[in-house]
Structure formats: structure tokens, C-alpha cells
Amino acid sequence: MTRILPLLALAAGLAPLQALAQEPAKPAGQAPAAPQTYETAIKNNKGEEIGTASFRDGANTLVVRIAIKAGGLTPGWHGMHFHAVGDCSDTEKFANSKAHVNHDQSKHGLLNADGPDEGDLPNIFAGADGSANTEVSSETSLVGEGGLKDADGSALVFHAKEDDHMSQPIGGAGDRVACAVIK
């Protein structure tokens, strides 16, 4: 079937489909722009480093890799969100990171018909030893207009409980237990 479509396109006087799918040629000597990568420490409520988060900004999505060391979180599911300010200095509650990144004022929740907001991310699971290792993606950009690395930065915040991805304002995820500055 794949060989028939280009032949039909040629017979109809159209360009073959493969030609339409090809990227435009870059001028000689011009390399494609490399995606930006950024890494930051994740700290718990005692100010101790419990892991790292790395961010890679792609053409259409932000890829976030999270590695939390053993003992970093309580075992089970934890909500995580992008918060509007890159300040994790208030280790007791991480309140300085403010609310979720939410430029268009959408409702909270990946499962919400009126959402999600830009800060919403999938839950993360910590094993019996408190460690977690995951990779998630988000349409929120790292740089540029509305990006996480704006003038006051952003924060990746982890919560004590699982996010139900529906209820307001944070899906019942509870207290903030870990935080990573994005600047």
C-alpha cells in the first residue's frame, strides 16, 4: 500500500508523499539548534538534596527526567507540579514557590475537561526505599514567552500525596515535601 500512494500521487500530478514529509533543506554548514538542557537539585523539607531533575526543551515538548535517591520520599504516589516562582528557600512549606504555573487560568487537573493548567504533571511513584526514577513530558516550555526560566524562574514541587487530577486547586495532593528551583 505504501508504494501505491506515491504512484497515485504522481498519476494525479501531485508530489509524492515522501517529498511532502521531508524537512526543508538547511543551508550548507548550518547545524540544527541543539535542545537546551538544564539540571537542578531536588531538596526536601530539611533542605537536604534528595535527587536531581533535568529538563530538556524540545521543539514541541519539554522532557523532564527525575531521579530521587533512596529515602527521598515516602513510599507511594506523589503529585508534582510546576509552580510559578523559582524559590525553594522556605523549606518548611515551600510557600515561596507560589501557585501553579497557569498563564491561561485553566482549571487544575490532567483529567479535567476545563484543564489542565500549565503546572500539571503526572504523579510520581516512590518505591519502598523512597526512591523514584521517571521521565515525563509537558507542553510548558523551558525558555521563551511563558517559559519556566522566566525572570523569577519556576519550581518543580512534589507533594505528600497523590494528585487525583480533578479536584481544585491541587487535586488533593497535600503538603509540599520537596522542591527544585528552575532558573
Provide a descriptive summary of the structure in words.
The chain has 183 residues and is mainly beta. The protein has one domain: Immunoglobulin-like (Sandwich). Helices cover 7% and strands 30% of the residues. It has 2 helices and 9 strands, in the order ααβββββββββ. The protein has helices at residues 4-11, 17-21, and strands at 36-44, 49-57, 62-68, 76-78, 80-83, 124-126, 132-138, 154-159, 176-182. β1 (36-44) and β2 form a beta hairpin. The longest helix is centred in the N-terminal third of the chain and has 8 residues, at 4-11. The chain starts with a helix and ends with a strand.
> Helicity range of the residues?
under 10%
What is the second-level CATH architecture? Sandwich
Radius of gyration (Å): 21 Å
| Uncertain residue ranges | 1-26
Sum up the overall morphology in one term: globular
Mean pLDDT across every amino acid position: 81
How is the main sheet built? Answer: 7 strands, antiparallel
- DSSP, total strands: 9
CATH class type: Mainly Beta
Please identify which CATH superfamily we are dealing with.
Superoxide dismutase, copper/zinc binding domain
Please give the alpha-carbon distance between the first and last residues. 50 Å
Task: Determine the strand fraction and express it as a percent band.
Answer: 25-35%
State the secondary-structure class.
Answer: mainly beta
Task: Please name the CATH topology.
Answer: Immunoglobulin-like
Number of separate structural domains: 1
**Widest beta sheet: strand line-up:** 5-8-9-1-2-3-7
